[in-house]
Please model this.
Amino acid sequence: EPKLLHQIRIDIPRTVPVSPVFTHPKIQALMERSLLIWSIRNPASSYVQGINDLMTPLIMVFLASELAATSYDEVHVDQASDEMLDRVEADTYWCLTKILSDIQDHYTFGQPGIQRMISTMKDIVRRIDPDLYTHLDTVGCDFMHLSFRWMNCLLLREMPLISAIRLWDAYIAEPSEGFSTFHVYICACFLVYWSPQLREMDLQDLLLYIQEFPTKQWGTQEIETLLAEAYVMKSLFHQAQRHFTDGSSPSKS
Model:
């Protein structure tokens, strides 16, 4: 437990370090307690770097609700009472627990869930953008290196928090497997979104670009486009997995 707590305390200050919400001592203490309790209750995976990021949309949404804020820019921790923060902590913990229960094999030994999702994403990209797939293969860009963080942190480090909240809203609204199956299609479409730029880059430039995609100005329009494309891809491919391996085209009937 001391080692576990030490790692959590290292990671929490790195969580959205530019945000006054997540650098606030009360929020950091809230996160520390929730992560420690979850990790003790789930020894099969325990704490893994990246789980700290998964708390951020939940905290922001619940805190905004408690404060009756009309926008996330109006969320100020000092305006929240201790009772409000207790409710935010409880709601965040149980929602985090529910989300992780569906993707816990992301964080167990060997991370088989992430391995599986990256393999599926690779197949989707091969089908929907063969030119990009070929270019990535030619320059030696491995999909594991390219998209591991996307799976581990559910794209929270790749876009503004407000955009990620809209994305997660769609995941929660999915009948099942929003944070696993549908997320793979989102990641595939996210990669293909940048295809024109990526196909012009060598490996070094490509790796630098994917570390910080120019998404800081993303808003509702970009997320809605991404969601729409992912829904289309899922409708075409998810019920026809054999097409990933046999090279045939999915039925559109």
